[in-house]
Amino acid sequence: MINLSISVVIPTLNNRQKFMYEAIKSVENQTYKPKEVIIINNGLNEVELPKSCLNLTQHKIIYKAGVAQARNFGASVAKGSYLAFLDDDDLWTSNYLENMKKVIDKDHPDCLIATLDQLVNGKIIPLKNADGLINQNVILYKNPGITGSSVVTKKESFFIVGGYNPKLPPSEDKSYVLELIKKEFKVVSVPESKAILRQHKNVGRLTDHKHMAEGVFQFYHNYRNVMDTSQKLYNLYKFNKFCWMDQRSLLSGVKCLIYLIFLIPGKLYHKLKNQ
What we know:
The chain has helices at residues 17-28, 67-77, 96-107, 136-141, 155-160, 172-182, 209-223, 229-247, 250-273; strands at 6-12, 36-41, 56-60, 82-85, 91-92, 111-120, 123-128, 151-154, 187-198. By secondary structure, the protein is an alpha/beta fold. It has two domains: 6-198, Alpha-Beta Complex (Spore Coat Polysaccharide Biosynthesis Protein SpsA, Chain A); 209-273. Strands 1, 2, 3, 4, 5, 6, 7, 8 and 9 form a nine-stranded mixed β-sheet that branches. Helix 7 (209-223) packs antiparallel against helix 8 and helix 8 runs antiparallel to helix 9. The chain is globular, with a radius of gyration of 19 Å. The two termini are 36 Å apart.
């Protein structure tokens, strides 16, 4: 047994407080309680914290510093030996932390990845399961289910690899795990733990097409030297797809089609390889 304690870090822009209260409630309902819950506010206004049995604290940082910077700051003030990240509009099932703790007690991993479900129109449906897909080859090609709300990580390991890269939104999540893998840290999936991503139209996630294009391009730029041809083509295809969806540019549309044509054999190869 290790001296285990978990700090929960919730970044917020304070523009969807109702959802944040529900996120905090899902932490309050955990069968294994965390040491603390740290709200990192990079919005304009103060966050009004709800009454809770949890040890809730709030820290204000630079306006719109970004989710990566918010998580990094939260990690720097956390007292727990492990960090569990939760976005302010997402949820955890009640045994999320308990299942993580069981794996930590048994295997002492540096990072744990949960299964992803999604909340759509009041219904919870499966989204992604990273079990068996946490390796460099897959992550360079696609995101198998690594997001801010599905990651629990050892604080010491977090700082060794430099935390989340603020230049990579929204690819900072898979980049963080990739850096752990490159340094041969132990990363495992925990299918029994489920994070629930809220899908909604009126209050968006950081997934507008412009940010997606920027994130994909920066990820490609950072890791192109370790990508094979198929991985390069797929990332360039995604970049141009999001550029086209953002601006409806004819040039981006044509490039997207060209990359897709060259990509098809590579996609088939990776599909067969990963079966």
